[in-house]
Amino acid sequence: MRPTVPMSDRLLEAMASAGARLYGGERVSELAHALQCAELADAEGADEQLTLACLLHDVGRVVVEPSLIFDRRGGARPGTRGHHEIGAELIAPYVPERVAWLVRMHADAKRYLCSTEPGYHAALSPASQHTLTLQGGLMDDEELARHRGHPWLADALRLRRWDDGAKVVGRETRPLEAWAPLVRAYLG
Ligand SMILES: [Fe+2]
Fold first, then answer.
1. Burial profile 128-154: b = 16 or more Cβ within 10 angstroms, e = fewer
2. CA 87/CA 71 separation, integer angstroms
3. Which of 22, 27, 105, 144 has a beta carbon 3.0–4.6 Å from 156's, enabling a disulfide?
């Protein structure tokens, strides 16, 4: 019988293989994007959970067939889901609630910033501007108020800014193996 592969190794393997793809209409690969995001978080003193969320925030893109992700291409169709939901649900049984929440929240964090910060939308990459619409567009006052009081909102907005900044072609980062101990510490 084949030994069970721990979730940490499955995710690391998916990031290393499927992660070599270009990242949703961006100019860097999924893997380079994840590594840059974690690196930015670490450089700015993010705690371990927040850094892990940065590394894994787009993991939903690499663990399922791209045609099943609605905000990747083509828009919402029956049977498709947002990559942020897929990723959050996959890791939720293994990680603290805050980590899964941050992964789920990274699409809404973009919607929040577009709705509250002049100039934020204009600075997004064209691909991020496109998926904003698919992810629900701007937030109304009621939705903004609901998010404003959340204790982890500030973390979600930090993650989002690192996410936006993690799309630089050719930027040097540590390799994925450097993050394996962190991933294994939480995901077995
Ligand atoms: Fe991202």
1. bebbbebbeeebeeeeeeebeeeebee
2. 13
3. 105
- Whole-number Å distance, alpha carbon 26 to ligand 1 midpoint, is 10
**CA 145 to ligand 1 centroid distance, Å:** 25
Decide: 174 and 35 in contact? Cβ < 8 Å: yes
Ligand 1 centroid to residue 136 C-alpha, Å = 17
pLDDT tens readout for residues 36-91: 999 999 999 999 999 999 999 999 988 887 777 766 545 566 677 889 999 999 99
CA torsion sign, 129 to 170 to 85 to 92?
negative
| Ligand 1 centroid distance, CA of 142 (Å) | 26
User: From ligand 1's centre to the CA of 57, what distance in Å?
Assistant: 6
150 vs 89: CA distance, rounded Å: 20
Is the entire prediction scored with pTM above 0.70? yes
